[in-house]
Design the sequence.
DNA sequence: CCTACCGATCGGTAGG
DNA sequence: CCTACCGATCGGTAGG
């Protein structure tokens, strides 16, 4: 008897992981189905047993990223924490989502959003909004303590933008840990 | 008799502009030579009269961006300004380089750096470093007045990252001018 | 999931 | 800069 997670879904997950890594490295158009297939030891026709087409793979990568990211982020919320403590946690979790090994899903979403079909985009917006709301609340708490500039939308966008852009230059082996980076980010914004 | 700027270089410039716009919109791999050609009314073989290959177009786009950007940025430096005034000017210029219509060169560089050949990349690093030095000096001045977090490298990267990421969501027609945005950025960082 | 294959499109070239 | 073309690669499919 097979386990609850069937071998089929294992292979599907393998494809998703490989696709995420390659989409992040080379972009959606730059990563071919052949490259994704051979990264998991398949032939170039086989991914279409798991996904309808290449767009569906891109969509699944982003959906998986949002699912994982929202789960981790919501798990980091604790009403008993001070604003500063809560901020420290959210920053650390967000940087983990962006930079930890194997976490290529959200970077793919950030930098290949324009490659996704409009209909697929609409299906993700609701989840993205839940994300944004968490950060909007966080910014509101910090502003209530006089900690950030006064336009809440700009504050949120600049804050997240600064973190999101780290994806483009961060190298795991350059002597700067994600924990260290998270501390620096917090110290930069909350003095 | 022809003018100093020959028609040849006009067509080359047209190609560069169209390539920058399409690379920004669709990414390097997503924008075909055919699309770039037809955007300027050429046939698909003609760009190779002006450029050796597609990589050379990408390189030329980035080089043009750096050239224009550095020129504007250096022109904005004025030793008689206060740190805050200097910061306001640099932010405005940087946002202009990123967001003004027709300024697609630097965004292409920021988001397609990985698509450029290693040898080409090396040839641009010197100019990029001049850019970074200007901002490093700016950050040092602000820190000397106690205005930013204390790690200079992180401060520079987060500051520029927050601005650079604006490229991914800014829409010129959404009621937020670049001037207004620049003011918000300054107010966010220097309270 | 593989084999064998398809039409379309790609970057690039020769010759004018 | 166009015409006409090339080999390579692409996403995707039928049949098993």
Sequence:
């Amino acid at each position: 008897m097979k386990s609850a997670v069937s071998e089929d879904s294992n292979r599907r997950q393998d494809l998703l992981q490989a696709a995420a890594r390659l989409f992040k490295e080379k972009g959606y158009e730059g990563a071919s189905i052949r490259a994704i297939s051979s990264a998991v030891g398949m032939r170039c026709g086989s991914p279409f047993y798991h996904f309808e087409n290449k767009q569906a793979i891109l969509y699944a990568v982003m959906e998986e990223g949002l699912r994982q990211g929202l789960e981790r982020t919501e798990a980091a919320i604790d009403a008993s924490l001070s604003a500063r403590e809560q901020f420290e946690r959210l920053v650390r979790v967000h940087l983990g989502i962006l930079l930890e090994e194997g976490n290529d899903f959200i970077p793919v979403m950030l930098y290949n959003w324009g490659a996704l079909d409009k209909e697929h985009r609409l299906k993700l917006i609701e989840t993205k909004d839940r994300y944004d709301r968490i950060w909007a609340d966080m910014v509101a708490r910090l502003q209530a303590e006089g900690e950030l500039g006064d336009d809440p939308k700009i504050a949120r966008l600049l804050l997240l933008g600064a973190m999101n852009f780290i994806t483009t230059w961060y190298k795991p082996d350059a002597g700067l840990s994600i924990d260290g980076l998270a501390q620096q980010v917090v110290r930069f914004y909350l003095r």
The domain at 55-189 of chain B is CATH 1.10.357.10 (Tetracycline Repressor; domain 2).
